[in-house]
Structures are given as C-alpha cells and as structure tokens.
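the two lines:
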Amino acid sequence: MKAFRKDFFREILKNKGRFLSVFFISLLGAAFFSGIRSAEGDMKTSADAYYDQTNYMDLRVLGTLGLTDTDMEDIAKVKGVAQVTGGHTLEVLHKEGEKEQTVKLIALEDGVNEPQILDGRLPQKTDEILVDQKFLDGTGKKIGDQVIFESGTDTALSDDLVHETFTIVGSATLPYYMELTRGTGSIGNGSIDSFGLLLPETFTSEIYTEIYVQVDGAKELESYSTSYEKAVKQVQNRVEELEEEACQRRYDTVYQEGQDKLSDARKQVTDGEKELADGKKTLEDGTLQIEEAKDTVAEKEKELKENESLLAEKETELQNGENQLAAKEKELTAGEQQLQQKMQELAAGKQELATKQTELTDGKVQLQIQEEELNTAKSQLEEQAAKLEEQKSQLEEKEKELDENEVTVTAGITQVQEGQEQLATGMQSVQEEITRLEAQKEQLSQMEEPDAEQLQQIETALQELKQQLTGLETQKEVLSQKETELTGNLTQIQLGKGELEQARTQLDAGEAEISMHRQELAAGEEKIAQAKEHLAAGERQISQVQKQLADGEAQIGQAKAQIADGKKQLAGAKAALADGKTQLSAGKQQIVDGKSALREAKDEIDAKETELEDGWKEYRKESRKAEKKLADAKEEIADGEKKLEDLKVPDWYVWGRDQVSSTENYGQDAVRITNIGKFFPVIFFLVAALVSLTTMTRMIEEQRQQIGTLKALGYGDGVIAVKYLAYGLMFTISGAFVGVLLGEKILPWVIMNAYGMLYTGMKEYLTPLNWEEGGLAILASALCTGVATVVACYKELAARPAQLMRPEAPKNGKRILLERIPFLWKHLNFTTKSTIRNLIRYKKRFFMTVIGIGGCMGLIVVGFGLQDSITAIAKNQFVNLFTYQASAVFNGDATEEKKARVQSEMETYPGIQQILEMYCQSVELQSPKRSVDAVMEVPKDLTCFGDFFDLRDRISGKHYDFPAQGAAISEKTADILGLKVGDTVQMKKGDQIVKVEITEIVENYVRHFIYITTDTYQTLFGEAAEYNQLLLRYEDTSDSYEDGLGQTIMEYPEIAAISFTSDLISEIDNMLRSLNIVIVVLIVSAGLLAFVVLYNLNNINITERQRELATLKVLGFYDGEVASYVYRENMVLTVFGILAGVGIGAFLHGKVIRTVEVDMMMFGRSIFFRSFLYSGLITLAFALLVNGMMYYRLKKIDMIESLKSVE
Amino acid sequence: MAAYVEMDQVTKTYQMGEVTIKAADGISFQVEKGEFVVVVGPSGAGKTTVLNILGGMDTATTGKVSVDGTRVDKLKGKKLIQYRREDIGFVFQFYNLMQNLTALENVELALQICKDPLDAKTVLEEVGLGERMYNFPAQLSGGEQQRVAIARALAKNPKLLLCDEPTGALDYVTGKSILKLLQDTCHKKGMTVIVITHNSALTPMADRIVRIRNGRVAEMIQNENPTPVEEIEW
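prediction for all of em together
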C-alpha cells in the first residue's frame, strides 16, 4: 500500500495545473454559495446583537386614548412579560428660516429602546435634548446649539412639555429607526423627518402614548427567527386579552372627566352673564350725574359774557383819550423843534458877522502895506534908468575910437604889401644875374684856357650879387614882421568892436525891463484903489446885519414861554389817562378769572363724560365678547356633550417588531440577499461542479493504462476507485473548505457594509461561520466530484485489464455534413477541417465547455444587468417619467392670492418654461393584501400636466391621458397591493378612508404614486384640493442656475422648500451605490470563475491532444501554427459559450431582479446591449488571457516524450 | 568532399532529476547522398537520440552535425523548425497520423507547410494506397497507416528520410513490404534514408551500416552489395 500511496502523491505533484484548477473551482463555488447564503443569517444575527444590546422592545402597546399606570400594571402582570415601560412621544415642528422639520420627541426610558450615542452624551436636565443625526444634517445645527420647537396643533406646546427650547447635547441612533425614513406623522407635511430624545420628566402628561413590553426569554432568541416570533406572539395574545377591560376603564375615566369639565363650564357661563348685567347699571347712573353738572356751568357762562361787553366799552373810551393826548404831545414836540432850529440859525448868523468884521480889518492893513511896497519899487526903477543912460554914451565913444584905428592899420598893411612886391622883383633879378654869371663861369671853366680874369670878374660880380641878395632877404624879413604886427592890431580892433556890440544888447534889455516894471507899478496902484472901495462897502453891510440879529433874539424869547405852557397842560392829561388804565386792567383780570373757573368746570365735565363713554364702549365691547364667549362656551358645552356622547371605547394596538417598518424592511432586505443566493450561487456552483467533473473524468481516462496495470497486478476495484475518489475529494473538499472560510467571512461583510448605507445604528457586522451552509457547500462539492469520479471509474473498472492496457481505440474520424458541400469544404485548410471535425466528434466536451463558459458569462451578464436595472431607475424616473426639473413647496399658511402671485412672478424668471400647481399629499394605499405609503398627486391644470409627467405603460410604451375618472397608480404599487386595472384601492388620508377605482397602471420606479383629478379629489374627500406645490420646468440644470433659482424662490415667505430633480437623481444614485458593491462582487466572482473554467478546459484539451500537437511540431509546424490549431477550437467554444451566456444571463436577470427589489422602488427590467457587450468582452478577454498562458505550455510540449510510445 | 550527412563527436546528456544520463557519448559517422543507412544497436544504445538529433527534434550537447552543408547543431528555435519542415521526413513506429483527417488529408497536412511538395495523390498511389486515400486512419490497417506516414514524409520531398523502428509495430510480412517501400524509394528516387532498428538481421539491405553500442559507434560498414529486402529473412 505504501507504493500505492506514493503513486497517489506523485500524481498530485506531477500535475499541478489540474490540482490547482480543481482546487480553485471548488473554492470559488463553495465560497460564493456559502457566502451569499450566509449573508441573510449574518445580517439578522448582527441586527439581533444590536437589538439585544439596545434592549429593543418586543412589543409595543398603543391606545387611542392613551395609556395609564393601571394599564401598565396590568400588562406587567401578564405571564411572560419581563419588563414594561411607559413611553411618551410628541410630534412637534422645528422651523428655522423657511425650513420646517417634523420632529418626533421621544422620552428616554431606561432599559428599553436605548439609544446609541454617536456623539455627545445623554440629556441630564429637562431642557437638554439628544437628537437624530438626520436632525443635525437637516437643520445644520451642532451639538451645543439651542433648538426651539413649535406645536403643530392647536394645543400649546407648554401644555405637553416643560420647555420649548432645548440644548442639543448629542446625536444618537435608535433601534427602531435603522432605516433613513422616520415614518409618517400627523402634523407638518405628514412625514416625520427626525427624532429627538428627552428626559421623561420633560413631558407633562401623566398619560402614556405607548407602552413598551419586553418578553421573558425573547432576548436569548434571535430576532427574526420563528422561535422568537412564536414566543412573542404568545405574550402578544395575552396582552391583547387585557384590551377590553382596560379600554372600558379608560373610557369611563375620560367620560367622567368630560362630565366634570362640562358642569364647570356651565357654572362659568352663568357667572359671566350676571357680571355683565351689573356693569350696565353702574354706567347708567354715571350718565345722569353728568347731565346736571352741565346745566350749572351754562348759567355761569352767560353772566360772565355780560360783564365782558361792559368792560369792552370802557376800554374804547380810554383808548380815544389816549389818542388825543398823543396828538397834542406830538404838536408840542414839533414847536419845540422849530424853536430849536431858529435859535441855531441865530447863533450861526452872529458867528458869520464876527468873521466878516475880522476879514475887513485884515484887508485894510494889507492894503497899506501894498501901497508902501509900490512906492519903493518906483524909486528904485528911476535910479536904474539913469544908470543905463550913462552906460550908453560911454559905449558910443568907444565905438568912434575903434573905427579910427581900423583905418590906420589897414593902410599900413597895404604899404607893407607893396614893399614886399618890390622886394620880390628885386630878388628875382638878382637871382637871374647870379644864374647868368654862373653859367658864364661854367663856360669859362670849360675853356682850355680860362680867362682867369674874366673869371675873376665874374666871381667878383657874383660875390656882389650874392651880397645884394642877402640884403634883400633881410629887408623881406622886416617886412613880414611888420605885416604880422599889423594883422594883430587889426584883430584886436575887431574884438573890441564885438564887445561893444554885446554891451549895447545888454543895455537894450535893461531898458525893456524898466519899461515893464513901470507898467506893473501902474496896475498895482489901480488895484489898491479898488480894494479901498470894497472895504468901505463891507463896513456898511455889517452894520445892517447887526440890526437883524437883535430882532431875531427877541422873537425866540417869546416862543420859549409858549412851549413851557403846553408842556404843563400835557402832564396833567397823562396822569388822568393812567388812572383810567389801571381801572380797566382790574376789570379785565376779574373776567379772566371767571373764565378759567368756568373752563375748569367744563373740563371736569368733559373728562367725566369721556370716562363714561369709555365705560360704555368697554361695556359694549366686553359684553359682545362676553356674549360671544358665552355663546362659544355654550356651543363648546354642547360640542363637549356631543363629543362625550360620541366618545367611543378606545382601542389598543399591540404590535410586535414586525410592525416597525425599519426592523421589518431590514429583515426583508436580508431575505432578498438569500433570494439572490437562490439563483446565483447555484449556477455558480453548478458550473464549478461541471468543470471538476470534466477534470476528473479526463484524469481517469488518461490513467486508463495504469488502472489496467493495477488491475492486472491484482488490486481490487474498490482500492483503485478509492485512489481516484480520494484524489478528487481531497482537492474538492480542501478547496471547498477554504472557500467556505473565505466566502462566509468576506461576502456577508461586503454585503452588510453595502447595506450599512441604508441602515444605520449597527456598530459591528457579525460574520460567524455558518456551518450549515458551509457543510452544505462542502458536501455538495464532494458529492459532485465523488459521483463524477465513481461514474468515470466504473466505466474503466468494468473493462478487462487487457483492454485497458491497450491504448483506447481512437474515436473514429467521421465525415461531417459540411463535407457534403465540397465548395465550402475544399476551401478550408486542414487544421480548420480538423477543428470542425473535432468539435463535432467530442460532443460531450463541446456542451460541457459551452455550458461552463455560458454559465460564467451569464453570471457576468446578470451582474451588469442588475447595474443597468438600478442605474436606469433615476434616469427613467426623473428624466423620462417626471419631466420637471424642480418642485417648490408652499407653506401651509400661504393664501391663494399669494400662491398665485408667486406663480406668476416665477413664470417671468429667466429660463423658466412652465409652472404647474399641484396638490401632493402622503397617503396610505391599502388592499386586502397589504398597505403601502404613497404620494397622492392632484394637478391643478390638466392641459399642461403632460409636459411635467409622462404617464405610460412600461411594456408597450403607450402614453395614457390623465384619468378623468378613478385613479392612475404606479406599477410596483399595484404589484405589491396585488391590484389591477378595474380593482378598487382604499386610500387613507389622515383619518379619512376613501375608495377609488384604478383606471390606469403607469410606469414608475421610485416610491409609490396615485394620480387623481381635482374633481375626483373633491368627490372623494368632500373638500377642494389645497395646492401646495409648484413644479418648474426649465432647460439649464447647471448648479449655478439652480442655485440662483433656489435663492430667488426661497425669498418668498410663502415657499417652504424647493427640491431639484438633479439632486434627487444623485441622491438615489448614491443610495443604490450600496447595491453596486454587491454587483461588483458578483461580476468579479463570475469573472474569476470564468477564468478558472477556461483555464481548466484548455488544460484538459491540451493534455488530451498532446500527441497530435507533438506530431504537428515534428512535421515542422511553427509554434504559432500549433497554437492556432488549439486556439481555433477554444475560440469557437468561447463564442458559443458567450452566445449561450446571453440567453442564460437574460433569463437569470429576469428572475433575480424581482427578488432583489425593495418595496420603495422598481428596478429597470431590461439589460442594456452594452452590458451584453461588456460581459462578452470580459469573457473573451479571459479566454484570450488563458490562451496566452497556454501558449507557453504548448511551446513546452516535448516531441520526443510525447511520441515515444502509446501511453 | 564532406559527406552529405555527417556527425562528428556528438554527445547528448539528459538531466533526469538527480541522474545524468549519457545517451550519446561521442558518436561520429558519415552518410553519402542517396544511401540507405541502417543504424542498429540494442535498446538504450542511443539510436533514437542520434535520429532525434539528426531530425532536429533534439539538440546535441556537444559535437558537430551537418546535413547537406547545414550545421544542424547550430540551428535554434524557428530555424530548427524550418529545418524539420523543409529538409526532414519522419516515419515513426506508431505512425502518428491525425485521427480526424483522411489518408489524403494527412498527407496534404504536411504539404501545406512546405515549399516544394510532391503531389499527394501520386505519392499515395506510389506507396500503394491509391484506393484508400479517402479513409480515416482508424479505417486502415497498421501497415496501411505506416504507408500513409511514409507518404506524408515523402510528399514533403525532404533531403533526409528518418525512420524510427518503422516495422516495430507491424507483422513480418507487412514489415517487409514497408522496408521494401523504403529501399525502393531510396534507390529509385535517390533519397537518403536512415532507418533505425534493433534488428541486426536487417543490416544486409543497407548501403551503410552503423552499429551503436553504449552511446558510441561500434563500427561503420559500407556494404557494396546490399541485399534486396525480399531475400532477407528474420
């Protein structure tokens, strides 16, 4: 057995490719199978751990009239109840700016529904609040901020709560709010946005809103399990048994309280009526008193008026006297002024006179001085004249003398000149003689024999002559001296004459001056004579004036006396007048006093009168009010009486966790994962099993000879079979085991993480190993491989050893149909022919491969298809079906006119194409089967409704008109409710429940909708629709445009909120991204599987063909040619696999999509072509990758070894 | 003048795990063009190694191999494949035919990759399979299959026809007729044929006999007067 075992292990080592492919296929199959299938359990376990940790209630009891301590005590006594806690809740509004949030305030109770603090701490004082994270997100508040709540009903908030303002101390999650929705409420827009947790003392009411019950032993059970449900159900039934008695008790209490209140009210009404009557009486008395006072005042007033007119007369008289006096006084003043003027004139006259006299005296003195000066000047003049005469005669004498001298000198000169002439002539003749003599002398000297004598003679003669000439020369000099002397004399004479002439001119000037002076003197004498006459005339005038002045002075004296008299009279008159005035003012004072007294009296009367008037007014007002109040009170009493009569015995609701939407939906989501797990892993697993089967079969076929040898050696069939069985199982089981470990740890974690985006609160994800699923996976893997091995072995073991030792007769080559068409066949090359024949020859392998590849491809298609379906949601819903871009919500208190104004103004906003007014309301749609929360849409204007919504049939694409009768409801809604066209749906709005027929079912993907006309609404609910929304259509959906639009529209106080379709799209896309993760897991896993499957199939193929391939190589086929021989077959198989995958994928997708969907949404039903393309390309890529890897294996095929012998 | 085929001090060692096997230990011999050569030796002497090296299916560890002036020992990769493709025809003990191609197609398969092939049908007729060329290998007897294999090798018109125990899987009569076919091919067409066999009885039919023992050439005999196959008995 040792050698046998050795062989076994060597077998493993020899073929690692086979080993690994079986191992990984088992691993993937088991991992996926157990992982996906464990996800539900893990999700539930994780949730249960969370529920246990927070002491999540098992039951919740609600009473329509509230619950009391007695109720609680009773419930506590029920068998199986571990703990009972009374709880308070209150729905309030939080308004900040335009934002309104409905907040559900919940009292924190110990030991039940404990919050998990995300941030901050628990409230410790009554004015502290722990809030929902959604509240912080929605309002933008932070821990430490103050929040103010408002009541959403008529009741004041202070009636229910100790405070209205709270400080946020932290944020938390609650076990029954794992979802992101917070349920529906009765105030605000009908849905609760977030919760807030307060200390129980903050609530004033002693009546509990609800009672939380924890069931004995339920905590130990797993929340979603049947045992849990059973345990809780028992207790639930027992609690429900209490209902009747408790409700009757509560009814009695409330009825009695009502009665007491009514009788109190009746008493109050009677009291009020009495008070009113008393008040009236007091007022009437007051009116009478005032009338009397008014009469007295009137009498007094008359008296005073008479006195006043008398005084007026006196005053006029006095005024006249005063006027006269003033005139007199004026006259007197004028006289005095005249007198003053006259006196001034007189003084001026006197002064003038004095000046004149002085002037006259001065004139006389001057005149005398002038006369004397004149005489002196006369005598001086005479003297000068005499002197002048003397100088004249002297001058004439000198003239005479000079003339005589002149004549003498002139004669002398003439003589001299004659002498000079004579001399000149003498000299000339002498000169000539000299010349002649000299010439002779010359001649002589020139003769040979000068005649000395003659010469002598001549010489002597010359001598003589020269002497004569010198004498003459001297004479000439004397003469010229004489001439110079004479000429000098003459010049002197002429000088003297010039002097004389000058003196004569001076004399003439002196004479002229004297004659002028004489004239002047004569004029001065005449002036003096005139002045003397003037002086005499002045003296005469002065005496005349002196006389006039004396007269004036006398007149002034008289006038002064008169004025003094006038003044005296005037003073007398003034004194009399002053007396009169004094009397008059006294009279006036008396009248003023009288008047003011009278006014005071009147004022007093007026005040009293006003008071009384006010009294009356108040009385009237108050009495009206009081009467109204009384009437109201009476009506109220009547109402109260009626209400009390109508008061019904309350109902109890005893609900388990399955009635909590969050808990229930989470469970459903978990189940949904299992639904995926129903199809997906099974397919996955099947492919894996199929491939390992092929592998094992191939292995046994390969070892045919060995089996034969073993058999020949005498080994029993069992032992041989065990070898292969052990071989196969070892890898399958070890692969599956590792797969289970990995799959159950990784996949549920990935899935829970994905769901963590939708369900908050859970702190940890538990992924315990689920041996049930794991065991199943391992067992199934082992079974598949085991059966396959045994079947394959059986065939071989049945044969005789000798048969086995021989090579298996190769399967005959067969002619195929295609060969009958020689035209085509002849054009194929031999490897292609071989490929085609091969494909047809090995049909088993063909189908195995095609199914294997097709399965993987199908899984990838489903993955992409799911993504298509999910991504289609937002686009289909908000682009194709809802064709508007934004919706604005009105405040509840906005009036119709204001709404119309907002609409008309927004219509002119740039870019806005159309606006539609809508009434949107949350309603609950019910059918016998189920109920769903939906939105009721009532458009105001049906004509343009089609521009905002597209109501159509999903499959046929047929567009519907708005249903004139009945209602259109969304497809998924109808599906859930199990209703079809023609059925009646029950619609619950607040307390009203109506029934409406379904006339259309329309395509819709997100949420649930019901569409009715205004008229239908009116008919159904008996009131007109109050439009509360504006839907806007525009082209530009850029952020900047929408920001601008949002800001503009939010400035209207009537607009509470605006939401943009583009935001909704991204919101939904975000939410669904969690499912994308699951899809990626699917695609990646399927891709991996595809890879392993292809690798394995190729591996088998090559091993099987080794000999053929070696032959080709020996024949000299290049590596590429050899590879293409193999690849061609692979590619054909891959293509067939892909085609099969399209079919498998489309089928699976249809199945899976319905199980994955959530109630709120309908996923797209179609797979895009793109997804098929991607899936095909991925599969093809894996095929090519595997081919690439196989190339090296092909290259490595050893020709010699392969061809050595037949194995 | 150098020989048509020459092996000079060819050695070949295989590394089988920890054991080194010396399959050829300095083999040298020459073959002239157109000769019918029989390489003979006991099992494991290194005959097949010689053939594999000559045929380009294996490479010598050391030594010189030349065929018609081509240094086969220097060829590598694609060149080596090309050498097999164009210059060598192989005949194996177990025929190695493509099972899903007919006799004709098996021959044509070889032809489609070589440069200067003979006509497939003619060759098949020459090997005596004119009637059965449309049959699949499974429909033929061993001898017939071997004839197809020979036809496939010949149709390539190779320089060298290498046959590894061509009669090993055949009965006496069939074996003889195959050997006859080979000898005739050699003598009539001037094809150089090298046959490997462990059967010394076949040596007389050869023009040249190469005896190999323990990886060495024990002797090389030139036979001037080869005996026709018909006259040989074993």
